[in-house]
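can u do me a favor
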């Protein structure tokens, strides 16, 4: 049995669904970052599979840009997360939404 485009697109859909459920359930900001990464990786799988299927490198170039954006998001997000945890000793999202400013 050969792995075709449909298999990759089903995998991409499953990953996207897992990431979407992770964002909806958001209890912890670190898990929210992980779910966002899963969403971005599902898009990467879809872009790379379709790009390979059509023999065009455009989708693979988009994958490189998405990886760069994801790396920047992780760097900034984890930096903010460390500062938040040092200040409040919690990374719970429910605590963040009940703050008064």
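np, heres the sequence
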């Amino acid at each position: 049995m050969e792995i075709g485009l449909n298999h990759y697109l089903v995998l991409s859909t499953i990953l996207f669904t897992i990431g979407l459920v992770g964002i909806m359930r958001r209890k912890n900001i670190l898990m929210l970052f992980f779910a966002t990464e899963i969403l971005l990786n599902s898009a990467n799988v879809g872009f790379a599979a379709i790009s390979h299927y059509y023999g065009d490198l455009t989708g693979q170039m988009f994958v490189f840009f998405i990886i760069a954006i994801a790396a920047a998001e992780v760097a900034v997000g984890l930096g903010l997360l460390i500062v938040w945890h040092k200040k409040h000793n919690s990374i719970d999202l429910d605590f963040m939404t009940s703050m008064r400013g």
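The helical segments are 5-24, 29-54, 58-88, 93-97. hope that helps!!
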